[in-house]
Amino acid sequence: MTVLDIQISVEEGDWPSEDELQSFSARILEAAADFLLREEKQPFPPDVSEVSLVFTDDASMRAINAEWRNQDKPTNVLSFPAFPVTPGKMPGPMLGDIIVAYETLNREAAEMAKPFEAHLTHLLVHGFLHLFGYDHLQDDEAERMEGLETRILARLGLSDPYGDRSPD
User: Is the pTM value of this prediction over 0.90?
Assistant: First the structure.
């Protein structure tokens, strides 16, 4: 099992405490890493893999999204791999950054009638997969990534966020 060094930064938003987010995020990301390692045979660096989590608000997310993706609007989650990586290939010891916006996450959870924690879990898994090179720009890529998300979330006791596929 790989060891994840999860660095947490709460910048803006009505987030739980850093300790709560650390514990919550560690459980989610360690489950995702274990799934990738065991089920997908994803190689990991031999010692420690570092991931940075930034919990912020819509205003900050909007600025980041505008700067890096030329989209002047907030989004729920953004991921920035530390190094270019292809799914199934060895990432560097620094996996990258995952940034989550509180208001967008909270609004989406309410619209879907899902608990905040369930939607946050999905977004963390989604962002984590991006750090390994998974994407959803093309239909075949989206199908693969969404299938992995669904299977990881099922192991965490959550239903399919896309509502139309079986966990296995």
Answer: yes
